[in-house]
Amino acid sequence: MPQRLILVAKVKSPHLAATLRECIPAFLERGWVVTGEPGLVDAWELSGLPAESLRVDAELGAQEPPADLCLVLGGDGTLLYAARRVGLRGTPILGINLGSLGFLTAHPLSEARTAVETFLAGGLVADQRFMLEAELWRDGRLLTRHTVLNDAVLAKGALARIMDLRLAVGEQDAGPIKADGLIVSTPTGSTAYSLSAGGPILHPCLEAFVVAPICPHTLTLRPTVVPATIPITISLDDAEDAHLTLDGQVGHRVLPGDRVRLHMAKASITLLQRPGLDFFGLLQQKLHWGDR
Q1: Quick one: signal sequence residues (predicted)?
Q2: Which of 54, 69, 86, 226 sits a CA distance of 20 to 30 A from 30?
Q3: Which residues in 254-263 are b (16+ Cβ under 10 Å) and which e?
């Protein structure tokens, strides 16, 4: 049975066609079956790869056993999408950065072919990342449930009125909160929105969440690190226009009286990283630690 590659890409990237030419032939030469979403067809044709070599599937093989690899060509947003659509099914993810920052898609564009060749030679390192499960409850009913890699954000919309929230960590009441919102992030997401809100950077091996208020009314209310084994509940007491945003990509309207319940998901994802790229080396590369 041939090995299977799921391809997830930032289809608007001007670098996509050239990167496909760099990465995909090595898989086709080995008889891999390549599957991608319909939006990938134009870039595939522009790359000059054989049209019949791309299997188009809007579900990305959801009805089939887990693929052998998910190749992500894009930025961190593209990888977050791939994590929910493909990585949760057990398929390891190799990210090539076509974006601007690339904390998760840590392999640079200039090394795209090398990254693929290293993978095919068995030279990449598996990096396990736990995920966050978010539930939205209303009147005792579960409205929606999602598993995300970075964060869950409960925040107000366009109106300037402050939000009244109540936070509970496990059975402990963490008190009422007046703020523009709250961010609950995983260690993976600690370098994203949470960092901009003043939250700490967590090492990916930690099993912990960062709870970071957004523009709190009380200046002594600071970001807090709590064990990921303890569930978190956010209750919305009052807000004009509130939304729950998951990984910056999935959104739901939240009404006064609703509850957002967050806990460590049973599932995790596997990122494939190049050997020798430690976490602090990545921080120096991406955040320019040590530069003067």
Answers
A1: none
A2: 86
A3: beeebbbbbb
Which residue from 291, 280, 292 is spatially nearest to 103, judged by alpha carbons? 280
Closest CA to 269 of 131, 123, 102: 131
Between helix 16-29 and helix 112-120 the angle, nearest 10°, is: 20
Q: 81: annotated binding-site residue?
A: no
Sequence-distant (6+) residues with CB within 8 A of 206 are 187
Quick check: pTM over 0.90?
yes
Name residue, tokens 């964060």: 151
Burial 69-97 (b: 16+ CB within 10 A, else e): bbbbbbbbbbbbbbbbbbbbbebbbbbbb
Binding residue per annotation — 77?
Answer: yes
**58-87 confidence digits (pLDDT tens):** 999 999 999 999 999 999 999 999 999 999
Q: Establish whether 76 is a catalytic residue.
A: yes
What token pair was written down for 167?
Answer: 């936070």
Structure tokens at 137: 């409850």
* Domains delineated in the chain: 4-124+274-287 (3.40.50.10330), 131-266 (2.60.200.30)
